[in-house]
Design brief:
Layout (H helix, E strand, L loop, with lengths): L3 H29 L1 H26 L9 H24 L7 H14 L2 H30 L2 H22 L8 H25 L10 H32 L1
Helix pairs in contact: 1-2, 1-4, 1-5, 1-6, 1-7, 2-5, 3-5, 3-7, 3-8, 4-5, 5-6, 7-8
Length: 245
């Protein structure tokens, strides 16, 4: 049975990372061909799959994982805050939006400077580095609940969707609202981190209404983040208007 509380943030996180990885692989494929670029990508994906399987197998050897719940929660808070802070800064106009077309042009320039081996490594590293964030989130979310199939399955589903969309478009997926997704996922992950960190510090029954408190935490971080971003955007616009007078 699918645990949607794990599957949804895993899917959205993976979708953003796979979009960025697809852009790199697409640019490399124009230099060394689809076959070699795909082989580089598959090699990286196999490494990530082996890491996920090994991590899940090791952790399932023990039934009691309470002693690492605090560490999981802290990690998720740090990861989520990073995504949320970037999304707020981009919405406020303090940081440029991620541009897949520019990333595509930059990768193409890198492949022109090197040989085929260097281009192969660029594709491998691109998928590996983006995939590592997917792996970290899937492991962290699945570790507490032991719902590995939900997290890993969602990440694979996101990969299939992104690749299918990219092949259909035959260009970088620049229309994907990455910042909106990062805003939502950042709030989700910070909510999980807060919930598990304080639960482990306070013991069983630390949260009223049990797991439903997650929804309240998610709503709080999402609304608070949006308000902060809107206020900051207004301040930036006022400064720009004042400077042009």
């Amino acid at each position: 049975m699918i645990d949607w509380a794990i599957a949804l943030p895993s899917f959205l996180t993976a979708a953003v990372e796979w979009v960025e990885a697809f852009t790199i692989v697409l640019a490399v494929s124009l230099s060394i061909g689809w076959r070699r670029a795909v082989m580089a990508s598959l090699t990286a994906l196999l490494v990530l799959a082996a890491m996920t399987a090994a991590t899940g197998g090791i952790l399932q050897l023990g039934d009691n994982l309470q002693y690492i719940q605090y560490g999981i929660g802290v990690f998720l808070m740090l990861f989520g805050v990073r995504w949320l802070a970037k999304a707020i800064a981009r919405h406020a106009g303090l940081k440029a939006l991620h541009d897949e077309d520019e990333e595509f042009r930059h990768t193409q320039e890198l492949t022109r400077r090197g040989d085929d081996k260097a281009a192969w490594l660029i594709a491998f590293n691109g998928v590996m580095l983006e995939g590592l964030e997917v792996w970290l989130v899937v492991v962290a979310l699945s570790m507490k609940t032991q719902h590995w199939a939900s997290g890993a399955g969602a990440a694979i589903a996101a990969l299939v969707v992104v690749v299918a969309a990219g092949l259909a478009a035959r260009k970088p997926l620049s229309k994907v609202p990455e910042n909106v997704i990062k805003f939502v996922v950042g709030a989700m992950i910070v909510a999980f981190g807060t919930f598990w960190t304080l639960e482990s510090a306070g013991g069983t029954g630390a949260w009223p209404f049990g797991d439903y408190a997650l929804l309240a935490l998610f709503a709080f971080y999402l609304v608070a983040g949006y308000i902060i971003a809107t206020v900051m955007r207004s301040q930036v616009n006022n400064r720009i208007a004042g400077a042009t007078k």
